[in-house]
Amino acid sequence: MTNGARILLAVALAAVLAALLLPAMPQPPEYHDFADRRAWYGIANFLDVVSNAGFLVIGLAGLAIVARPQTVFEHPAERWPYAIFFVGMVLTSAGSAYYHLSPDNERLFWDRLPMTVAFMSLIAAQLADRLAVRTGVALLLPLLALGAASVLHWRATERLGWGNVLPYAILQGASVLLLLVLAAANPSRYTRGADVYGVFAIYVLAKILELADRQAYDLGHVVSGHTLKHVVAALAGLVVCRMLALRELRVPRP
Description:
This protein has helices at residues 3-21, 46-50, 53-67, 79-101, 105-130, 133-160, 166-185, 196-211, 213-218, 225-246.
């Protein structure tokens, strides 16, 4: 086992232990209290709803890039994690728009589930790029199942009256950390490998905008932080699109 693989395993185990041992944390009700509630053209929470179009447009563009013959993949199976990543973006567009029409926990499930598809498949893609193709492809379905399980667990516990969003939150944070560990400890077989740092930077900026939802809206009642979060978060997919479109094979591996 390589040092990079050992670090990844340690991060994953730490995340699982934290999710199991820390006290349950229900979804705060105020989470659904977004700053911009304006309805335009008969659509409630208009800007928070339509700002999800970026996920749809970039997701479809990414699928086209993955499918085109000239996009460089040393092994055909490497297309699958990236294809599912962009499918996750398309589904996030629909799920998030549905949630923001009438925010509550039941609808939030359909926002979070496709996001785990995008997070987990991107990890699998980077495992294939940086460790071994077989490893990344073999772990794709287990990672997707793990992501779905964290959201299903949260919804089930909410319905039972003792909601616990902690496993989902830890999994999301661990996913970002795993991407950084992979990038730092294992060079990609392709050029443009450092582009994954751009995905991390966009994630951090999106989180800041999410936390500054009302503050951004109060600056002039033009646009809220959460609307801007959607726009910025979609750019992570654009970074992956650009990486795939421009990269070349550098170091062949098994």
